[in-house]
């Protein structure tokens, strides 16, 4: 059945192309006439951001209604690609991460939105969406990876709290001290928890290592990051990859239920943690965020700008949108990437693409968010490099690297052997195709 | 005589025509669905395999480029090897387990209905739930499987789904466990068709129970066995869901099988042309192996 889908899609696409040829509307547009644009979202009941943006925009432009169309969160891109090819996709759709931006853009599935883009001024997260001087999507969220830590467990283990100056070696040392200290205090919690995703090692390695390039085919830059992870799991300072994988450990439980004192995770976890504290799924304890550990001292410390990674979440316009709605859709895009939408998103714990002091303050005013200076610094000051550089080879490279990740972290293969093999595969199967 | 025939012919052909139409109309609802959702896409697949279609835009004809690429694609060969690995072990193991269960549960036994149901249960259980539970059972450090192995004196129990060497055996075990109940049911049905007189006659002739099994049961089950082998072969070659939910092909590429490779290339990397070409190879393998099985079966029959 799986094999059947592309063909159905192509048949449907051919039909729509025939049908689309019959249309064509070129009537003058009244800017105040009521317009309804559709917007794709996922898991609407548990993901309030889409409704927040739709309602917020309605307040500024009462004649425009944004109607939400729900997709499955796990299969979002597959479903969206099928709908776009079939011509049934919503007017505005979300680009969950950068991995598939190339597919959409090169496939002609994104309208040129340079107009909305130029109204945004300087916004670092906009750059990945620009191709040949034109803008094809605008970012509305920009999560980045930070270090979450449990202050109470640090105190229990008698280990000094992070001060923002950590390199990875400091992080490893702290994780080991914490594990030993917690054990001494009669607790079974580990110093750190590394989630099973490939980005927990590879995202940092790519963003922080000078000269690292996913598409160069040279993957030696991964080595020190994996050595540290393997060291930590061999020392028992974090649950092993095997245990995390076979027992489907969830990072929310691991940190929220105080099983681990430190967790490297994206800023989206702030909203989750706040909600889970309210619902009782997470314990109530003193926590904080610190900048992610750094490659070397040059970017460490609160007087420097720490380097971390994260993909922006963007929105683009379906080129099949009817002409009478384009202006409203462009206005919506300008709104979602703007200051006002930023505050609305921060108000529900989400990190908007636009960084400004009022936005940071809105988020830190939420009940349960730590108030210390280091947390504010970690949240507001950083240089974010993309996890998925935009290229037609990115999806293929990430698949090769995912195999490397599971092989290395499960101790199935030696690190050097795995890197050599991944380089050979990258050259043979991805970069030359 | 000749006159009668000419009078009969139109009537008979009308009857044949009417029967054909009636027959077609019975299978039509199913056939329309099949044609629209399966047949047309499968035919399109044979065209797409020779193009570079990537979902958006036109499918450019690239001739045999996809197949030449496959020839030099190490991941494809890994996937093919793993598919054969799974198949070669999964078919005999499932057959043996299913037949064993069927023989065991074919006697008059108190509560036999309960045991038959129990054996069938894994087959109707959600595969995602199976994967989660088995993964926990196989957990290298805290799992009951390894706890048991340690208790009976195995010092270094395998890492199962977290080890490149043991992930495939783990998947095969779960695959066998899941499917043996279904094939047991087929064997049970087959066993009912063997006349009891044959067993009686064999007993009177002094045949031991092994001889009765060898010379009455096995030949009596030939048609069932053939059907089971064919279904198991096709099922094993296209194994997908179990692997996807249990190991996602990992660690590394140790459990990557062809259908998952097709999924990855097609739906993750949007290389639908290449994915279609790999699908054709999988189809050819299934077709070839099943053809050979039919040929062998026919030769034995005659």
Automatic annotation (TrEMBL), chain A:
Q: Which domain of life is it from?
A: Bacteria
InterPro entries from the xrefs?
Bact_solute-bd_prot1, SBP
Renumbered to this chain, the signal peptide range is: 1-20
Q: Does the keyword Disulfide bond apply?
A: no
List the keywords (alphabetical). Answer: Signal, Sugar transport, Transport
The record's PROSITE patterns line, in alphabetical order, gives: PROKAR_LIPOPROTEIN
Please report the name of this protein according to its UniProt entry: Multiple sugar transport system substrate-binding protein
Which species does the entry assign this protein to?
Micromonospora phaseoli
TrEMBL record, chain B:
- Enumerate the subcellular locations listed in this protein's record, separating them with semicolons: Cell membrane
> Could you tell me which InterPro entries the record lists for this protein?
ABC_transporter_permease, MetI-like, MetI-like_sf
Name of the protein in question: Multiple sugar transport system permease protein/alpha-1,4-digalacturonate transport system permease protein
Q: What is the protein's membrane topology class?
A: Multi-pass membrane protein
Q: Which GO terms describe its cellular component?
A: plasma membrane
Specify the species.
Micromonospora phaseoli
The record, for SUPFAM superfamilies, names: MetI-like (SSF161098)
Stated family: Belongs to the binding-protein-dependent transport system permease family.
Transmembrane stretches in the record are 21-50, 84-105, 117-137, 180-199, 220-240, 272-296
Q: What are the residue boundaries of the ABC transmembrane type-1 domain, all occurrences included?
A: 80-293
Q: Which PANTHER family match?
A: ABC TRANSPORTER PERMEASE PROTEIN, INNER MEMBRANE ABC TRANSPORTER PERMEASE PROTEIN YCJO
For this entry, list what GO says about its biological process: transmembrane transport
